[in-house]
Amino acid sequence: MSAQSAFHASAGDLNAQSLRADARRESLRLLALLSPSLFLVFAIIIVPIGWLFWLSLFDEAGFLSTANYARFFEQASYIKTFVTTFKVAFIVTGACVLLGYPLAYMLSQLPRRAASICLIFVILPFWTSVLVRTYAWLVILQRKGLINSWLIDLGVISQPLSLANNLSGVVIGMTHILLPFLVLPLYASMKTIDGDCLRAGMNLGAGPVATFRQIFFPLSLPGLASGVVIVFVLCLGFFVTPALMGGGKVIMWAMRMEQTTSLYSNWGAGAALGVVLLVVTLALLGLFQWLLGARATGVWSSR
Amino acid sequence: MSEDIGLPISHRQRLWLYALGGLVLLFLIAPSIIIVIMSFSDSTLLQFPPQQWSLRWYQTYFQSLEWRDATIVSVKVAIMTTLVATPLGTAAAYAINRGTLRLNGTINALLTASLIVPVILIGIGTFFLYAPIGLNNTLTGLVIAHTVQALPLVVLTVLSGLRSYDMNQERVARSLGAGRVAAFWQVTMPQIRFSIVSGALFAFITSFDEVVVSLFISGGDTTTLTRRMFNALRDQIDPTIAAISTCLIVLSVVLLSVAQIFGRRN
User: Fold this and answer.
1) Which of A182, A220, B45, B203 has its CA 20 to 30 A from that of B129?
2) What part of B 98-137 touches A (C-beta under 8 Å)?
3) What is the pTM for the complete model shown?
């Protein structure tokens, strides 16, 4: 090997080395920027959840057991909680689709200016406190509330309907709160549907209904799926509205967790509930991401 | 003809769609409007529309020491949360945007975890974590917990600002001799400052409106406004809450408008 090529080789080595060292320093700097946020998330979310998981593996006497999980299949009250939770989640998700799809469709068809004005009515509730909106529905739906007093004044009914403090109150309140979570991603995905596809369909002789059914609707399905998944998942862990509007009769998963831990101080049982809730949530989101290759958290960045 | 899509369907043929969409919009907005109107009622009964108007519920709100203390706690916590979450979230978004780290996907998932993990689980977990270290019922504890919940919103908002910014500009500045900090501060920052402001506003409102975690970790002197409202609603429907709710709605409207104005200028 000549002296010259040896020099080139070693210079190349040196260069590669210093480049690698530079890249490593750069990565460290970026990690340093991330570290405070990651530390906080780790300390407030990951550590307590791990701790709760550990706790859920022990029974009340402090022995390692599956008692906390076995209870879910044995005690009727737990089974009833799960049935209620899934029932509410299915009804609310269905209602959100029925109300949200036409709204998103209308928004996607309106001229830009009109659409952005209408969008304010979707985004404003999205950023209004859940508590405020639940209170509003309590006022509207309770025994002496607006709906009942109007219907009685109009002579439609003689006895007040029981709309709050039961399942229907919970469903109405939750549908109102979760509707924007369906409309926003659905609208965003409908906006990306190419108008040329629709025009081409109509040129080829399809009527408006056929164009919608065969072209627009299939193209809007990914957006709809993302909205459905996020609404369903949020339903499963919803606390405020069922706690305030359920009248103590509608016990959902999150309320059950609060009761077992604060009321009965049974941390193992509450922790087990939380672990299963988290696993179901992550499984649903994971399934969605695997099937569609998109993140369901898009709703928060699609504004 | 619809001007955006240009399909041969007239607005008239679409009337049913507009009617349906309008009804859903009404469903979304009516509760807030009803509460705002009712908060000016003179009656202890919740009538709509009110027979007589007055500001008595606002007076009750502002004169009650309990409500005033709770409001002050919430404002303090929200301001501190904003001051902590905004720089942390901006730094994190900057690092994620470089996209050179191997675990970028995992980091992203971790930082947005608090949007996905059921809030009730975060509440119970935080209470459990704080109990041995004495952070329950403290402002510090509330600020830390709220910061974690506000972080993903700051990160996502700033990230979307950075996506439309050309990082080469910062490289140019550095090749011309600016240091790292100077390059960021003088070149990048002015161009993404509107997303940072939006992120900060979202952080503020996230903290101010937060209910579930505060239920577990606030109490006594540090009872937040939302926690006090939640407890009051469990007992009875007090019209004072209509006045408080109106203030919260106005706050949301103001912060959102500011965010929108800043967003448009971006």
Assistant:
1) B203
2) 98, 100-101, 107, 110-122, 124-126, 128-129
3) 0.89
A and B: number of Cβ contacts within 8 A: 273
Query: What pLDDT, on a 0 to 100 scale, did the predictor assign at position A160?
Result: 84
Interface check for B248 against chain A (CB to CB < 8 A): the answer is: yes
CA distance A224 to chain B (A): 17
Of B9, B153, B208, nearest to A300 by CB-CB distance is B153
Q: What is the least distance, in Å, from the CA of B39 to any CA of chain A?
A: 11
Inter-chain touch A301–B253, beta carbons under 8 Å: no
CA B35 to CA A139: how far, in whole Å? 8
* C-alpha distance from residue B253 to each of A16, A87, A129, B80 (Å): 55, 34, 12, 21
Q: Which domains does chain A have, with CATH numbers?
A: 66-300 (1.10.3720.10)
What one-character-per-residue DSSP string does A22-91 give? HHHHHHHHHHHHHHHHHHHHIIIIIHHHHHHHHHHTB-TTS-B-SHHHHHHHH-HHHHHHHHHHHHHHHH
Q: What is the pLDDT of residues A220-238, one digit of tens each?
A: 998 899 899 999 999 999 9
Pair of tokens at residue A122 = 């979707």
Question: Tokens in use for B184?
Answer: 């960021």
The answer for B 172-201 residues in CB contact with A (under 8 A) is: none
Alpha carbon distance B78, B76 (integer Å): 6
Mutate to test the interface with B, among A27, A39, A41 (most CBs of B within 10 A): A41
Strands (E), B42-183: none
Residue B227's alpha-carbon distances to A110, A254, A259, in angstroms, are 41, 17, 17
Would you tell me the crossing angle of helices A167-191 and B15-38 to the nearest 10 degrees?
A: 130
Residues of A in contact with B94 (CB under 8 A): 33
Chain B residues with CB under 8 Å of A137 CB are 31
Query: In angstroms, rounded to a whole number, what is the distance separating the alpha carbons of residues B73 and B144?
Result: 14
Mean pLDDT by 10 residues, chain B (266 residues): 53 83 94 91 78 88 92 96 96 86 81 90 93 92 96 92 87 86 88 90 94 91 92 84 93 88 67
CA distance B196 to chain A (A): 14
Instruction: Please state the CATH superfamily assignment of the domain spanning residues B64-265 in this structure.
Output: MetI-like (1.10.3720.10)
Listed in sequence order, the residues at least 6 apart from A297 whose beta carbon sits closer than 8 Å to its beta carbon are: A230, B112, B115, B116, B152, B156
